[in-house]
Design goal:
The protein is an alpha+beta fold. 55% of the residues lie in helices and 15% in strands. β2 and β3 form a beta hairpin. The radius of gyration is 44 Å and the shape is rod-shaped.
Length: 328
């Protein structure tokens, strides 16, 4: 009797374990067509920095029962929250909805479960106990307030409100990451990073120290690295410009100091010349010849030559050319 009871408990336990392993389940409204293939595909989703918001890697497929029931085992999921996509194979047995390809994004870990309920279209409604997914649904409701805006769409207002919601209301890093990717899709992330670099730097450090798959925030890391590089190049250009201006100013100051010093030296030297020598020097600078100078001062040419020799000696020069250069 005890052995039978123990065997019954073992079988019951195995049965419960088998049920517990199906963490994704639900129903699809299908037309009855036994000849058509009926499959549900499960894909792992990654955020990326390409033109598309997400990239997909199919990890499993399952058949749909005749009653429209499907499920996925927990072996396809990890213990960490991740973003997944469930998709109905586009076949003829979908409901009357003209769009034959139906899919849904959701967040799940192997420790949680999600159930897609019966509805007029595939994956229309579902229940889940995953906290991250629930927070994501709240984010979607918030974002839906702006979806109807078109010509009067105020990007600054949207960015301000969304950024405030992300910082103040979102608690789960993965959901923050998804919301930031939405900003990137709307071409608003670069602007916000430039204005709030410290926030995103801190967020990236938090992401790196968390258990989130690095592939999910690689796009943010790459974007920050690119912005840091652009800022460094801009700072380098500004630094080089300022250095150039500083060198120009210093060079100008040195030139002015030397010029002033030279003038002072010339003034000292000029003051050592006699009145007659200064007169002859000025006449030389005006282009007069020795004979013209002699006639103007009523002295002999030899006297002029003697004064010129004394001028050259005092000014430490050897020719009229040097005198002209020195007095430019």
């Amino acid at each position: 009797m005890n052995n039978r009871f123990f065997l019954f408990l073992t079988i019951l336990s195995i049965g419960f374990q088998g049920i517990a392993q199906d963490i994704v389940s639900g129903y699809i409204p299908l037309k009855k067509n036994k000849d058509a293939e009926q499959k549900i595909h499960l894909s792992k989703v990654d955020l990326n920095d390409t033109d598309k918001s997400y990239s997909y890697t199919r990890i499993a497929s399952t058949n749909i029962s005749e009653q429209g029931y499907f499920s996925f085992d927990q072996k396809w999921f990890t213990s960490k929250d991740h973003l997944y996509k469930i998709q109905l194979e586009p076949t003829e047995e979908t409901s009357t909805n003209k769009q034959s390809k139906k899919s849904k994004l959701f967040i799940l870990s192997k420790n949680d479960s999600i159930h897609f309920e019966k509805g007029s279209s595939p994956f229309e409604t579902y229940t889940t106990n995953n906290k991250a997914d629930k927070e994501w649904q709240q984010l979607k409701k918030f974002e839906s307030k702006f979806e109807t805006l078109h010509d009067d769409f105020d990007t600054d207002k949207y960015l301000l409100r969304t950024k405030g919601y992300i910082k103040d209301s979102l608690q789960i890093l993965l959901v923050k990451l998804i919301s930031i990717k939405k900003l990137d899709d709307k071409k608003l992330l670069d602007k916000d990073i430039m204005e709030n670099t410290s926030y995103y730097t801190s967020l990236l450090k938090e992401l790196k120290s968390s258990e989130i798959d690095p592939a999910l925030f690689l796009y943010l890391e790459n974007k920050l690295s690119l912005i840091y590089k652009e800022e460094a190049e801009q700072k380098y250009s500004v630094s080089m410009l300022l250095n150039g201006i500083a060198i120009l100013i210093i060079g100008s100051l040195i030139f002015l100091v030397l010029r002033k010093r030279r003038k002072a030296q010339n003034a000292i030297i000029t003051s050592s010349l006699s009145k007659q020598e200064n007169t002859i020097k000025e006449l030389i600078l005006s282009g007069k010849t020795n004979k013209e100078i002699a006639n103007e001062l009523f002295i002999s040419v030899n006297t002029v030559k003697t004064h010129i020799s004394n001028i050259y000696s005092k000014l430490n020069i050897t020719s009229r050319k040097e005198l002209l250069v020195k007095n430019k």
